[in-house]
Each structure stands twice: as structure tokens, then as C-alpha cells.
Amino acid sequence: MKVYCVIGDQRVTMSLSPVMHNSVISELGLDSKYVAFSIEPANLENAILGIRSLGVSGVNVTVPHKETIIPFLDGLSDSASVIGAVNTIVRHGQSLIGHNTDVGGFGDLLDYHGFSPDGSDVVIIGAGGATRAVLFSFMERGYRNVAVVNRTYKKSMELTGRLGGLAIPFENVSEVLRNAGLLVNTTSVSEIVESSPFIDLFSKIGRLNKLQLVIDINYGRKTNFWASLAEKNGASFTDGLYMLAAQARRSFQLWTGEMPSLDDFLRPIGLIE
Ligand code: ATR
Questions:
Q1: Which stretches in the chain have pLDDT values below 70?
Q2: CB within 8 A of 69, min separation 6: which ones?
């Protein structure tokens, strides 16, 4: 039997990855199992030793290990190396190679929505670990008008210096937002809370006439500020569930060589019937 797993901190117990992968494994009749392991940062190196010695066939990596895992691997794909984050480990004999399927997963989401900028700007909110794959995906697709807005300006400067795009200071964001066709939230903040820098900012700004689509890469929030922003501006909204399924499918392909349909990953998480 082949064993695959996802490693993260205690939040990994909520991960939807096991349900998706095990459903596809059973559809294909493979003798495999996918499990979740909660690993605290101090134990990460030991966990990788365990993965090596137990012969685990493939690994997904989630928060907070996507960057800190890199020194323990034997090599990186080009995109994982450029963005400095790994969400998938593929075993080649005794070597563990890090990949990043979040980049392609986010690209699949853009394709699904058929977004075309038509002269408008893309605005990414946030400059954390999750922002990297999103920004790189836009750069790979040749988008040039990509603004990155973050509470901490220094972090958006560092990120755009490394990957491309333009860091915009928080206080100058109104102008960029007025020309935004697509807004992507990559911060961890989605719930409608009483006060946050972004909620305060958007409540002061008038209608965003060019806004076509709002993407929140989080999912499963009871109330979603980004969904309500989209609604107020007559734009479409999507959360991160589609991207989750798309990156899972790409990881599965790297491990097994099989490319099941995206529907096979969307169905177990209830996105389609
Ligand atoms: P992840 O790896 O999940 O992306 P991270 O690297 O800690 O996590 O990044 C979290 C992102 O959410 C950052 O852009 C962070 O802004 P700062 O760089 O200013 O810290 C953003 N973020 C987190 N809490 C926030 C809040 N209450 N308001 C605005 N931005 C917030």
C-alpha cells in the first residue's frame, strides 16, 4: 500500500485534503491511503526523517511549514525555488523534491472564471506566505498591472522586489482600487469583524466601477467581508475551495502520473453534486 499525507500544525485536522484524495484513490481503485499529520514547527525536521524512513510516497505541506520545510528537502522545482514555498513533496527514489501546485491551482481558478483584465488592474491584498503563489501565477501569465497592498508596506516591497508587481503603500491605495478589475485577498482576514485596516479602507471608498471579480483564497468562513464587497460592487465572488481542489489534482498528478477530472476533486468537498 502507498501512503500519502498532509503535514501542517494543529489546523491540519480541519483539512479537506484527505477527503478529496481518498475519494479519488477509491474511484481509481488504487491501493493507497492519504492521512493528515499535525506537526509542530520544532518537530518538522524529525517528521521529514520519518517520512523518508517510512517510505511515504507523497506529501502535501500546509501552514506553517511551506517555507521552513525547504532546507530539509533534496531539491526544488523551478516555481517552488523562485517563490520560496513548497506545498507538495514528490519522492524520487531516496530524494524528496519540493514543488508548488498552488501556482497552477490559482491559474486554474483564473481560467475557470475566464478573467480578462481589459486594461484594469489586478490588486492583491496581503504580502504573506500565501501571496507568493498568487503573485507568481500572475507574473507567469504575463499580467503586468499587478498591485500588492499590505498592512505592512515593507513586506509588500520585499515580495514585489523578488517576484514582480508593484507594492502600493496603504495610504495610496484608493486610486489603484478604482481601476481594479480583479481583487484577490491573500490575508488570513475574511470574516466581517468590527475593525480592520481593510474593512475601514473599503468602507470609506466609493463604488469600484471596474471591479469584475473578487477572489478570497480562504474558505469556510461564516461571514465573508470580500463576498459582501463583491456584492456591493456588482462583481462576482469566489472563495478558495476551487483552488484547493485544483492544487490537489495537480499534486495527485505529480505523485501518480494520473490526471483525474477536476470534478472528482470538487465533488467530495461539495462544490458540485
Ligand atoms: P500566510 O503564510 O498564511 O500567508 P502570513 O505569512 O503570516 O500567513 O501572512 C498573513 C498576511 O495577512 C499578511 O499579509 C498580514 O499582514 P502583515 O504583513 O501586515 O502582518 C495579513 N494580516 C494578518 N492579519 C491581518 C489584519 N488583522 N489586518 C490586515 N492584514 C492582516
A1: none
A2: 44, 48, 61, 86, 89, 98
